[in-house]
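Moderator note: this is an archived Q&A kept for reference. The question asked for a predicted structure of one protein chain; the sequence and the answer are reproduced below.
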Amino acid sequence: MKAIPTWKQRKLDKLAYFSKGSGYSKKDLIPYGYPIILYGRLYTKYETVIQNVDTYVNKKEKSIISNGNEVIVPASGESAEDISRASVVANSGMILGGDLNIITLKEKIEPVFLALTISNGKQKKELRKRAQGKSVVHLHNSDLKEVNLICPSKEEQKKISELFRTLENSITLHQEKLSKLQSLKKAALQSLFPQKNEKEPKVRFANFKEIWKQYKLKDVIESELKGKAKAKDKTNDCKNVYLETNYLNGGEVSYVDVPNDVDEDDVLILWDGSQAGTVYHGYKGALGSTLKAYKPKESGEFMFQYLKKNQQKIYDNYRTPNIPHVVKTFTEDFRIKSTSIIEQRKISSFFKQLDSTINFYQDKLEKLQLLKKAFLQKMFI
Protein backbone atom coordinates (compact mmCIF):
# COMPACT_ATOMS: atom_id res chain seq x y z
CA MET A 1 0.00 0.00 0.00
CA LYS A 2 1.28 3.42 -0.96
CA ALA A 3 2.10 5.61 2.04
CA ILE A 4 0.14 8.84 2.43
CA PRO A 5 2.56 11.82 2.58
CA THR A 6 2.56 13.47 5.99
CA TRP A 7 2.19 17.20 6.57
CA LYS A 8 5.45 18.77 7.76
CA GLN A 9 6.02 21.68 10.12
CA ARG A 10 8.12 24.55 8.80
CA LYS A 11 8.88 28.05 10.02
CA LEU A 12 7.60 30.74 7.66
CA ASP A 13 10.93 32.59 7.89
CA LYS A 14 12.54 29.76 5.85
CA LEU A 15 9.88 29.87 3.13
CA ALA A 16 9.54 33.56 2.25
CA TYR A 17 10.91 37.07 2.02
CA PHE A 18 9.26 39.88 4.00
CA SER A 19 8.67 43.56 3.27
CA LYS A 20 6.20 46.38 3.97
CA GLY A 21 3.81 48.50 1.95
CA SER A 22 4.13 52.24 2.40
CA GLY A 23 3.21 55.75 1.47
CA TYR A 24 -0.57 55.83 1.19
CA SER A 25 -3.72 56.06 3.33
CA LYS A 26 -7.46 56.62 2.75
CA LYS A 27 -6.95 60.39 2.38
CA ASP A 28 -4.98 59.73 -0.85
CA LEU A 29 -7.88 57.99 -2.63
CA ILE A 30 -9.30 59.51 -5.83
CA PRO A 31 -12.11 58.37 -8.19
CA TYR A 32 -9.74 57.26 -10.98
CA GLY A 33 -6.02 56.60 -11.16
CA TYR A 34 -3.52 53.91 -10.25
CA PRO A 35 -5.02 50.82 -8.53
CA ILE A 36 -4.09 50.40 -4.87
CA ILE A 37 -4.74 47.96 -2.04
CA LEU A 38 -5.02 49.52 1.42
CA TYR A 39 -4.95 47.39 4.56
CA GLY A 40 -8.57 48.32 5.39
CA ARG A 41 -9.78 46.31 2.39
CA LEU A 42 -8.89 43.10 4.24
CA TYR A 43 -11.50 44.10 6.83
CA THR A 44 -14.23 45.73 4.75
CA LYS A 45 -14.10 43.49 1.67
CA TYR A 46 -12.11 40.41 2.56
CA GLU A 47 -11.19 37.96 -0.21
CA THR A 48 -8.68 35.12 -0.11
CA VAL A 49 -7.55 36.21 -3.59
CA ILE A 50 -7.71 39.88 -4.63
CA GLN A 51 -7.98 40.15 -8.41
CA ASN A 52 -9.53 43.58 -8.91
CA VAL A 53 -9.84 46.71 -6.81
CA ASP A 54 -12.04 49.81 -6.90
CA THR A 55 -9.65 52.14 -5.05
CA TYR A 56 -7.22 54.45 -6.85
CA VAL A 57 -4.50 57.04 -6.15
CA ASN A 58 -2.05 59.28 -7.91
CA LYS A 59 1.17 57.27 -8.04
CA LYS A 60 4.04 58.59 -5.92
CA GLU A 61 7.76 57.93 -6.29
CA LYS A 62 9.12 54.83 -4.53
CA SER A 63 5.69 53.19 -4.39
CA ILE A 64 5.62 49.48 -3.60
CA ILE A 65 4.17 47.70 -6.66
CA SER A 66 2.96 44.10 -6.69
CA ASN A 67 4.58 41.51 -8.94
CA GLY A 68 1.65 39.13 -8.41
CA ASN A 69 1.19 36.26 -5.95
CA GLU A 70 2.33 38.17 -2.86
CA VAL A 71 0.51 37.38 0.38
CA ILE A 72 -0.48 40.48 2.34
CA VAL A 73 -1.37 40.67 6.04
CA PRO A 74 -2.59 43.87 7.76
CA ALA A 75 -0.10 45.34 10.20
CA SER A 76 -2.82 47.15 12.20
CA GLY A 77 -6.35 46.35 13.30
CA GLU A 78 -8.98 46.97 15.93
CA SER A 79 -8.59 43.60 17.63
CA ALA A 80 -6.28 40.60 17.77
CA GLU A 81 -9.16 38.48 16.47
CA ASP A 82 -9.44 40.54 13.28
CA ILE A 83 -5.79 41.13 12.46
CA SER A 84 -4.83 37.55 11.60
CA ARG A 85 -6.09 37.44 8.03
CA ALA A 86 -4.26 37.22 4.73
CA SER A 87 -5.01 37.70 1.04
CA VAL A 88 -3.17 36.86 -2.16
CA VAL A 89 -2.53 39.73 -4.59
CA ALA A 90 -3.27 37.89 -7.81
CA ASN A 91 -2.06 40.45 -10.35
CA SER A 92 1.01 42.57 -10.89
CA GLY A 93 0.87 46.36 -11.12
CA MET A 94 -1.08 47.19 -7.95
CA ILE A 95 0.27 49.61 -5.36
CA LEU A 96 0.53 48.07 -1.89
CA GLY A 97 -0.29 50.77 0.64
CA GLY A 98 0.89 51.45 4.15
CA ASP A 99 0.26 49.16 7.12
CA LEU A 100 0.54 46.02 5.00
CA ASN A 101 2.99 43.21 5.71
CA ILE A 102 4.08 41.68 2.38
CA ILE A 103 5.16 38.05 2.11
CA THR A 104 6.91 36.99 -1.10
CA LEU A 105 7.09 33.22 -1.23
CA LYS A 106 9.76 30.81 -2.36
CA GLU A 107 8.79 27.91 -4.57
CA LYS A 108 7.97 25.43 -1.79
CA ILE A 109 4.61 26.95 -0.81
CA GLU A 110 1.47 28.02 -2.66
CA PRO A 111 0.29 31.63 -1.98
CA VAL A 112 -3.40 30.69 -1.63
CA PHE A 113 -2.55 27.87 0.78
CA LEU A 114 -0.52 30.29 2.92
CA ALA A 115 -3.32 32.88 2.94
CA LEU A 116 -5.80 30.22 4.04
CA THR A 117 -3.59 28.80 6.77
CA ILE A 118 -2.74 32.25 8.23
CA SER A 119 -6.45 33.14 8.31
CA ASN A 120 -7.63 29.88 9.90
CA GLY A 121 -6.87 27.30 12.54
CA LYS A 122 -3.69 27.02 14.61
CA GLN A 123 -1.75 29.72 12.74
CA LYS A 124 -4.54 32.24 13.24
CA LYS A 125 -4.49 31.53 17.00
CA GLU A 126 -0.70 31.82 17.06
CA LEU A 127 -0.72 35.25 15.40
CA ARG A 128 -3.58 36.42 17.56
CA LYS A 129 -1.39 35.79 20.62
CA ARG A 130 1.47 37.76 19.06
CA ALA A 131 -0.66 40.82 18.21
CA GLN A 132 0.31 43.79 20.39
CA GLY A 133 -1.64 46.83 21.54
CA LYS A 134 -4.90 47.85 23.18
CA SER A 135 -7.12 50.28 21.23
CA VAL A 136 -5.18 49.42 18.04
CA VAL A 137 -3.28 46.15 17.74
CA HIS A 138 -0.20 45.59 15.59
CA LEU A 139 1.33 42.62 13.81
CA HIS A 140 4.86 42.85 12.45
CA ASN A 141 6.85 40.89 9.91
CA SER A 142 8.98 39.68 12.80
CA ASP A 143 5.82 38.03 14.19
CA LEU A 144 5.01 36.44 10.82
CA LYS A 145 8.52 35.04 10.49
CA GLU A 146 8.01 33.01 13.66
CA VAL A 147 4.80 31.35 12.46
CA ASN A 148 5.03 27.56 12.38
CA LEU A 149 3.29 26.27 9.27
CA ILE A 150 2.06 22.71 8.91
CA CYS A 151 2.26 22.02 5.19
CA PRO A 152 1.53 19.12 2.87
CA SER A 153 3.37 18.56 -0.40
CA LYS A 154 3.33 21.30 -3.04
CA GLU A 155 0.97 19.16 -5.13
CA GLU A 156 -1.52 18.83 -2.25
CA GLN A 157 -1.24 22.54 -1.51
CA LYS A 158 -2.25 23.22 -5.12
CA LYS A 159 -5.27 20.90 -4.83
CA ILE A 160 -6.42 22.60 -1.62
CA SER A 161 -5.91 26.04 -3.18
CA GLU A 162 -7.88 25.09 -6.28
CA LEU A 163 -10.74 23.75 -4.15
CA PHE A 164 -11.10 26.99 -2.21
CA ARG A 165 -10.68 29.20 -5.27
CA THR A 166 -13.47 27.27 -6.98
CA LEU A 167 -15.67 27.60 -3.91
CA GLU A 168 -14.98 31.32 -3.54
CA ASN A 169 -15.63 31.94 -7.25
CA SER A 170 -19.01 30.20 -6.89
CA ILE A 171 -19.79 32.23 -3.77
CA THR A 172 -18.88 35.48 -5.57
CA LEU A 173 -21.04 34.58 -8.59
CA HIS A 174 -24.03 33.77 -6.36
CA GLN A 175 -23.51 36.99 -4.37
CA GLU A 176 -23.45 39.03 -7.59
CA LYS A 177 -26.55 37.29 -8.94
CA LEU A 178 -28.37 37.78 -5.64
CA SER A 179 -27.40 41.46 -5.52
CA LYS A 180 -28.71 42.02 -9.06
CA LEU A 181 -32.00 40.26 -8.27
CA GLN A 182 -32.45 42.32 -5.09
CA SER A 183 -31.79 45.50 -7.07
CA LEU A 184 -34.31 44.36 -9.69
CA LYS A 185 -36.94 43.82 -7.01
CA LYS A 186 -36.28 47.22 -5.45
CA ALA A 187 -36.71 48.87 -8.86
CA ALA A 188 -39.83 46.80 -9.62
CA LEU A 189 -41.47 47.84 -6.33
CA GLN A 190 -40.91 51.47 -7.26
CA SER A 191 -42.20 50.98 -10.83
CA LEU A 192 -45.17 48.61 -10.45
CA PHE A 193 -46.81 50.45 -7.54
CA PRO A 194 -47.81 54.15 -7.65
CA GLN A 195 -45.60 56.50 -5.71
CA LYS A 196 -46.94 59.02 -3.19
CA ASN A 197 -48.31 61.57 -5.65
CA GLU A 198 -48.96 59.25 -8.59
CA LYS A 199 -52.42 58.05 -9.67
CA GLU A 200 -51.02 54.97 -11.39
CA PRO A 201 -47.63 53.20 -11.55
CA LYS A 202 -44.87 54.17 -13.98
CA VAL A 203 -44.90 50.66 -15.48
CA ARG A 204 -47.95 48.47 -16.13
CA PHE A 205 -48.42 45.07 -17.69
CA ALA A 206 -50.01 45.07 -21.15
CA ASN A 207 -53.76 45.75 -21.52
CA PHE A 208 -54.34 47.10 -17.99
CA LYS A 209 -55.87 50.57 -17.90
CA GLU A 210 -58.04 50.50 -14.76
CA ILE A 211 -57.77 53.50 -12.47
CA TRP A 212 -55.91 52.78 -9.22
CA LYS A 213 -57.80 53.88 -6.10
CA GLN A 214 -56.64 54.67 -2.60
CA TYR A 215 -58.13 52.87 0.42
CA LYS A 216 -57.65 52.65 4.12
CA LEU A 217 -55.85 49.40 4.91
CA LYS A 218 -58.84 48.23 6.95
CA ASP A 219 -61.06 48.50 3.85
CA VAL A 220 -59.09 45.81 1.98
CA ILE A 221 -58.99 43.44 4.98
CA GLU A 222 -61.70 40.90 5.59
CA SER A 223 -60.68 40.19 9.20
CA GLU A 224 -57.73 40.43 11.56
CA LEU A 225 -56.50 38.11 14.29
CA LYS A 226 -54.28 38.86 17.29
CA GLY A 227 -52.10 35.88 18.17
CA LYS A 228 -51.92 34.21 21.58
CA ALA A 229 -49.16 32.44 23.48
CA LYS A 230 -49.32 28.66 22.97
CA ALA A 231 -47.58 25.77 24.69
CA LYS A 232 -45.03 24.17 22.38
CA ASP A 233 -45.38 20.46 21.62
CA LYS A 234 -42.01 19.06 22.75
CA THR A 235 -42.62 15.69 21.13
CA ASN A 236 -43.27 17.25 17.69
CA ASP A 237 -46.05 14.69 17.19
CA CYS A 238 -48.36 17.53 16.20
CA LYS A 239 -47.56 18.96 12.78
CA ASN A 240 -49.05 22.45 13.20
CA VAL A 241 -46.31 25.05 12.93
CA TYR A 242 -46.05 27.68 15.65
CA LEU A 243 -45.75 31.07 13.94
CA GLU A 244 -43.40 33.00 16.23
CA THR A 245 -40.86 35.67 15.30
CA ASN A 246 -37.82 33.43 15.79
CA TYR A 247 -39.14 31.00 13.17
CA LEU A 248 -40.34 33.75 10.79
CA ASN A 249 -36.85 35.28 10.88
CA GLY A 250 -35.17 32.02 9.87
CA GLY A 251 -34.92 30.24 13.23
CA GLU A 252 -35.85 26.70 14.18
CA VAL A 253 -39.44 25.59 13.66
CA SER A 254 -41.60 24.68 16.68
CA TYR A 255 -44.96 22.91 16.81
CA VAL A 256 -48.11 23.36 18.87
CA ASP A 257 -51.03 21.08 19.63
CA VAL A 258 -53.71 23.53 18.47
CA PRO A 259 -55.50 24.08 15.14
CA ASN A 260 -53.99 26.33 12.47
CA ASP A 261 -55.50 29.82 12.45
CA VAL A 262 -53.43 31.40 9.66
CA ASP A 263 -53.41 30.56 5.93
CA GLU A 264 -50.56 31.17 3.46
CA ASP A 265 -52.34 34.14 1.85
CA ASP A 266 -52.76 35.95 5.18
CA VAL A 267 -50.45 38.89 5.80
CA LEU A 268 -48.67 38.88 9.17
CA ILE A 269 -47.24 41.84 11.05
CA LEU A 270 -45.04 41.79 14.13
CA TRP A 271 -46.94 43.84 16.69
CA ASP A 272 -44.46 44.13 19.57
CA GLY A 273 -40.69 44.27 20.09
CA SER A 274 -37.66 46.00 18.61
CA GLN A 275 -38.65 45.00 15.06
CA ALA A 276 -42.35 45.80 15.48
CA GLY A 277 -43.95 46.60 12.13
CA THR A 278 -42.09 43.88 10.19
CA VAL A 279 -44.36 42.30 7.58
CA TYR A 280 -44.45 38.58 6.63
CA HIS A 281 -46.39 36.45 4.15
CA GLY A 282 -46.64 32.86 2.91
CA TYR A 283 -46.97 31.04 6.24
CA LYS A 284 -49.56 28.56 7.48
CA GLY A 285 -49.85 27.69 11.16
CA ALA A 286 -50.88 28.80 14.63
CA LEU A 287 -50.28 32.50 15.35
CA GLY A 288 -47.92 33.54 18.17
CA SER A 289 -48.64 36.23 20.73
CA THR A 290 -46.51 39.06 19.25
CA LEU A 291 -48.14 38.85 15.81
CA LYS A 292 -51.32 39.92 14.04
CA ALA A 293 -52.73 38.31 10.90
CA TYR A 294 -54.75 40.14 8.26
CA LYS A 295 -57.00 38.11 5.97
CA PRO A 296 -57.22 40.02 2.67
CA LYS A 297 -60.42 40.57 0.72
CA GLU A 298 -58.50 40.02 -2.52
CA SER A 299 -54.78 39.22 -3.05
CA GLY A 300 -52.67 38.75 0.06
CA GLU A 301 -49.48 38.66 -2.03
CA PHE A 302 -50.36 42.07 -3.49
CA MET A 303 -51.06 43.51 -0.01
CA PHE A 304 -47.81 42.04 1.33
CA GLN A 305 -45.66 43.46 -1.46
CA TYR A 306 -47.27 46.89 -1.05
CA LEU A 307 -46.64 46.86 2.70
CA LYS A 308 -43.11 45.53 2.23
CA LYS A 309 -42.39 48.35 -0.21
CA ASN A 310 -43.40 50.70 2.61
CA GLN A 311 -41.60 48.76 5.35
CA GLN A 312 -39.40 51.68 6.42
CA LYS A 313 -42.42 54.02 6.38
CA ILE A 314 -44.21 51.64 8.79
CA TYR A 315 -41.18 51.62 11.10
CA ASP A 316 -40.90 55.41 11.03
CA ASN A 317 -44.56 56.48 11.25
CA TYR A 318 -46.72 53.71 12.74
CA ARG A 319 -44.89 52.67 15.91
CA THR A 320 -44.89 53.99 19.44
CA PRO A 321 -41.59 55.42 20.79
CA ASN A 322 -39.36 53.82 23.42
CA ILE A 323 -40.59 50.19 23.45
CA PRO A 324 -41.78 49.76 19.83
CA HIS A 325 -45.38 48.71 19.36
CA VAL A 326 -47.48 49.13 16.22
CA VAL A 327 -50.08 51.84 16.83
CA LYS A 328 -53.62 50.58 17.42
CA THR A 329 -54.96 52.76 14.61
CA PHE A 330 -52.57 51.30 12.02
CA THR A 331 -55.20 49.82 9.68
CA GLU A 332 -57.28 53.00 9.99
CA ASP A 333 -54.35 55.34 9.29
CA PHE A 334 -52.33 53.47 6.67
CA ARG A 335 -53.32 54.06 3.03
CA ILE A 336 -52.95 51.50 0.25
CA LYS A 337 -53.38 52.09 -3.48
CA SER A 338 -55.02 49.21 -5.32
CA THR A 339 -56.31 48.13 -8.71
CA SER A 340 -58.50 45.39 -10.18
CA ILE A 341 -58.10 41.86 -8.84
CA ILE A 342 -56.83 40.68 -12.26
CA GLU A 343 -54.01 43.24 -12.27
CA GLN A 344 -53.30 42.51 -8.61
CA ARG A 345 -52.82 38.84 -9.49
CA LYS A 346 -50.53 39.70 -12.38
CA ILE A 347 -48.34 41.88 -10.16
CA SER A 348 -48.47 39.29 -7.38
CA SER A 349 -47.40 36.50 -9.73
CA PHE A 350 -44.42 38.54 -10.92
CA PHE A 351 -43.20 39.27 -7.38
CA LYS A 352 -43.85 35.73 -6.17
CA GLN A 353 -41.68 34.32 -8.93
CA LEU A 354 -39.00 36.96 -8.33
CA ASP A 355 -38.97 36.26 -4.59
CA SER A 356 -38.72 32.53 -5.29
CA THR A 357 -35.64 33.11 -7.46
CA ILE A 358 -34.09 35.40 -4.82
CA ASN A 359 -34.69 32.77 -2.13
CA PHE A 360 -33.15 30.09 -4.37
CA TYR A 361 -29.91 32.05 -4.77
CA GLN A 362 -29.91 33.05 -1.10
CA ASP A 363 -30.23 29.39 -0.11
CA LYS A 364 -27.49 28.32 -2.54
CA LEU A 365 -25.19 31.07 -1.24
CA GLU A 366 -25.74 30.06 2.39
CA LYS A 367 -25.02 26.41 1.57
CA LEU A 368 -21.80 27.32 -0.26
CA GLN A 369 -20.67 29.49 2.67
CA LEU A 370 -21.40 26.66 5.10
CA LEU A 371 -19.52 24.22 2.87
CA LYS A 372 -16.50 26.54 2.79
CA LYS A 373 -16.62 26.95 6.57
CA ALA A 374 -16.79 23.17 7.06
CA PHE A 375 -13.78 22.57 4.77
CA LEU A 376 -11.77 25.27 6.56
CA GLN A 377 -12.50 23.69 9.94
CA LYS A 378 -11.52 20.23 8.70
CA MET A 379 -8.36 21.19 6.80
CA PHE A 380 -6.96 23.92 9.06
CA ILE A 381 -7.31 22.71 12.64
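Archived answer notes: The two ends are 27 Å apart (CA to CA).
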